[in-house]
Design brief:
Layout (H helix, E strand, L loop, with lengths): L5 H9 L10 H8 L1 H6 L16 E3 L5 E2 L2 E2 L12 E4 L2 E5 L2
Length: 94
């Protein structure tokens, strides 16, 4: 179990204490984003597609590996700057 912390959750899945249960960054990110919607039977959500109401988060620029931030243990995690739910901003950094 992890706190409500998107990148912390992804990093936890990548660096599970048992190496047999570790996931790639891509698989962990997909599980945290698309997988969350699927868990509540909203299979049409969790992806950005033309014509759909956008739900997404904006993160600060950072070093990327394969399109995702470096999430090595001890690295500082990105902090969310804005969250948009179905086209409406619900959080914005001051």
């Amino acid at each position: 179990m992890t706190p409500l912390d998107p990148w912390g959750s992804v990093r936890t899945a990548m660096w599970h204490h048992n190496p047999a249960y570790r996931m790639s960054a891509k698989a962990a990110f997909a599980a945290h984003t698309r997988g969350g919607w699927r868990a509540v039977h909203r299979d049409d959500e969790g992806v950005l597609v033309p014509g759909a109401s956008a739900t997404f988060a904006v993160w600060p620029p950072c070093d990327l590996t394969n399109g995702l931030p470096t999430l090595d243990p001890g690295d500082e995690l990105p902090q969310c700057r804005r969250t948009v739910l179905r086209g409406t901003t619900i959080h914005e950094e001051a």
